[in-house]
Specification:
This protein has 279 residues and is α/β, with parallel strands linked by helices. Helices cover 40% and strands 10% of the residues. The relative contact order is 0.16.
């Protein structure tokens, strides 16, 4: 799959892609690892890579690394940098693709490492609606425009689309899940020297996802604003602030809560059920 050239706003710190590189290769310069200096952008696209677990319905996989971009700087985070990165950017807006998944991966790591201040900042960002989701915004835009009627994934019976499909649909930076690194990130846990050239494929793959996510978000937001604009006089003053464009902020918070419910499951009181049936 060919890579789409990024907009000029993100080209200042980039380099030209060499011909013949695989489709999952990232063609631009990135920090490996993050140098500890805060990114400048108000909105930061964020993603995690984890150990591979076939069934995620009741398990949080172990985080291996993080990746982030504000469109100007692109950074790879060792997992021990996740706490400092969150604290350094707790006043920003974060956007991910299926960020409910990443939220609990990060929460699990911060809790295990007893990183109380970073954990508090992470929860505070969720509470203040600073976490956003391109997967959900894509669904909401398609519902609002009527495109959702023909957009159901027949296999999963869902309107959710993977990042590569959303990127293609919105003509954004191309990502592909067809690569030899996606399911083997656990190998990095045993690697101390991340500058080893044989590991570059892992980092090229991981930084491409937030890069595409940010570009998608920057396209979806103006579309959502245009959809909402004719109805603004019908809303109470704080509707968009309280719930987000097309209720995206509310949907993201709900997705985070429902992900926890999926992980925990629901208790069932057999005795109560039996008594009700007998009544």
């Amino acid at each position: 799959m060919a890579r789409k050239k990024p907009s000029s706003s993100s080209a200042a710190t980039t380099q030209t892609k060499e011909e013949g590189l695989p489709a999952w290769a990232f063609p631009y310069a990135y920090e490996l690892p993050w140098d500890g200096k805060p990114l400048a952008g108000a909105t930061i696209a964020f993603d995690t890579e984890t150990t591979y677990i076939p069934d995620l319905s009741d398990t949080i996989p172990e985080v291996v690394l993080g990746s982030a971009t504000d469109g100007q700087r692109h950074v790879i985070l060792r997992r021990e940098q996740l706490g400092p990165f969150i604290r350094a950017h707790q006043d920003r807006q974060f956007v991910g693709h299926n960020i409910a998944f990443d939220f609990w991966v990060i929460e699990d790591w911060l809790k295990k490492e007893n990183l109380a201040s970073a954990r508090a900042a992470w929860w505070n960002m969720a509470d203040k609606k600073q976490l956003h989701d391109t997967m959900l915004m894509d669904i909401l835009v398609r519902i609002a425009t009527g495109e959702a009627a023909s957009g159901v994934d027949e296999k999963e019976r869902s309107l959710r689309r993977s990042l590569d499909k959303v990127a293609a649909a919105w003509d954004c930076f191309s990502v592909t899940k067809d690569n030899p690194y996606r399911l083997t990130f656990a190998k990095l846990l045993d690697e101390q020297d991340w500058t080893d050239p044989k590991l570059k494929g892992y980092f090229d793959y991981s930084i491409g996802d937030p890069f595409a996510t940010l570009e998608i978000w920057n396209k979806l937001v103006p579309v959502a604003e245009k959809i909402v604009k004719p109805f603004m006089k019908q809303f109470w003053g704080g509707a968009v602030k309280d719930y987000g464009l097309l209720t995206e902020s509310l949907q993201t918070q709900s997705a985070i809560a429902l992900r926890r419910l999926t992980l925990n499951g629901l208790g069932f009181d057999h005795a109560l059920a039996a008594s009700q049936e007998a009544a």
